[in-house]
Amino acid sequence: MKRLAILGASGHGKVVAEIAELNGWDVVFFDDAFPSVNGLAHWPVIGTTEDLLNDLQRFDGCFVAIGNNRIRLDKQTMLTEKGATLPVLIHPLAVISRYANVQAGCVVMAGAVVNPFALVQQACIVNTASTIDHDCILAEGVHISPGANLAGGVSVGACSWIGIGASVKQCVQIGANVVVGAGAAVVSDIADNLTVVGVPARALDSFFSDGASRCARDAE
Ligand SMILES: CC(C)(COP(=O)(O)OP(=O)(O)OC[C@H]1O[C@@H](n2cnc3c(N)ncnc32)[C@H](O)[C@@H]1OP(=O)(O)O)[C@@H](O)C(=O)NCCC(=O)NCCS
After folding, report:
1. Where in the chain are the domains?
2. Are 3 and 24 spatial neighbours (Cβ–Cβ below 8 Å)?
3. Which atom of ligand 1 is nearest to the CA of 146?
4. Ligand 1 site, residue 203, Cβ cutoff 6 A
5. Atom nearest to 145 CA in ligand 1
6. Tell me, what's the pLDDT at 169?
7. pTM for this prediction
8. Structural contact between residues 24 and 48, judged by C-beta atoms closer than 8 angstroms
9. What is the arithmetic mean of pLDDT over 163-178?
């Protein structure tokens, strides 16, 4: 059986591990909280990132299951530079167009749909029952949360996080390091580094009258 090392023993890691098993991988975890964290449900946690790097040759693949978009992307870049192979993990009940391009280290979860000519760059999470319509471009390290829907031709910048149940109108361009709040409707372009909420989505700082900074980038 192919051996997969998953970095990041978390709730997200559990979902990734099951998808990996459904794709024929034998899974063990690594986490920097080892040895205080030494197991995750029925999967063993056997070391830290450093231990994994010292033992890379024992594994047929590595996968980073860390919710924080920037940390996930940085760890994946480091593993790739060290020569690790990062597979794409696709749940058998996800639908990926033959014309879509889903790159290394991405996970596509149950019920998700990725339509023709979508480009999903490395280290993205396409979470449960989310949809990525035709011609969308997700830059590296993006997370599309459960039930979020991107209409055709949407672009999402690196490390941005589209919250649970959010909707994005066709051809909208979302910048890098953006957080789109749960349930938001994005109907116009969003600049880099903003958190937006509501219907229609507006920046949190302008949404509330006190103007306080409420940005929760990388909140996971
Ligand atoms: C947008 C978000 C990141 C803001 O988080 P935060 O900075 O910690 O903000 P807070 O929870 O302190 O809320 C600040 C204010 O914004 C409001 N708010 C927060 N999220 C909101 C949302 N999605 N829509 C509308 N208003 C929202 C809160 O009600 C609060 O208002 P108040 O000051 O009048 O009480 C977060 O609420 C969110 O929506 N995260 C997405 C969660 C998600 O998708 N999880 C899936 C994981 S797989």
Report:
1. 2-86, 90-207
2. no
3. 48
4. no
5. 48
6. 98
7. 0.94
8. no
9. 98
Q: Which residue has the tokens 């994994």?
A: 52
* CA distance linking residue 119 with residue 106, whole number of Å: 11
Active site amino acids: 134
- 2-86 and 90-207 share one fold: no
Does pLDDT of 16 surpass 80?
yes
Look at the domain 2-86 and name its fold: Rossmann fold (3.40.50)
Whether ligand 1 lies within 6 angstroms of the CB of 95 is answered as no
Considering only CA atoms, which residue is closest to atom 20 of ligand 1?
Answer: 181
- For range 212-218, the mean pLDDT: 39
Give nearest CA residue, ligand 1 atom 2. Answer: 181
Q: Which residue has the tokens 């449900």?
A: 41
Q: What is the CATH number of domain 90-207?
A: 2.160.10.10
Retrieve residue 153's tokens.
């031709």
